[in-house]
Specification:
Radius of gyration: 13 Å
Helix content: under 10%
Distance between the termini: 40 Å
Strand content: over 45%
Shape: globular
Number of helices: 0
Order of helices and strands: EEEEEEEEEEE
Number of strands: 11
């Protein structure tokens, strides 16, 4: 079982930055792909970014490309989401997820393990 704990959310002004962290308690993350998703009230869960732990291959949603960056730290078993130039429409609960795949995947249906989420609120 992979346990995931998100942190780093908060309230930020539009145009500001936040870095989310997802700490994973697992023996190794090399068989996994990690993902970030977000969900606003009344809306479906939305793909944000994904990274293959073993290869480092990444994919980001068009809505966040050129503003967000996903990265990993092998020594800490932690995945990060660096969010820059934040917009009010980025406001959501952000979830970290993991799935036993070595390639990036964008579908939340393919992810097996989920964190509890961290709130990101962007004000104007």
């Amino acid at each position: 079982q992979v346990q995931l704990v998100e942190s780093g959310g908060g309230l930020v002004q539009a145009g500001g930055s936040l870095r989310l962290s997802c700490a994973a308690s697992a023996r190794t993350l090399s068989p996994y792909t990690m993902g970030w998703f977000r969900q606003a009230p009344g809306k479906e869960r939305e793909f944000v970014a994904t990274i293959s732990w073993s290869s480092g291959r990444t994919y980001l949603a068009d809505s966040v490309r050129d503003r967000f960056t996903i990265s990993r730290d092998n020594d800490k078993n932690t995945v990060y989401l660096q969010m820059n130039l934040l917009k009010p429409e980025d406001t959501a609960v952000y979830y970290c997820a993991a799935t036993p795949s070595t390639m990036p995947t964008m579908s939340p249906r393919t992810y097996v393990y989920w964190g509890q989420g961290t709130q990101v609120t962007v004000s104007s």
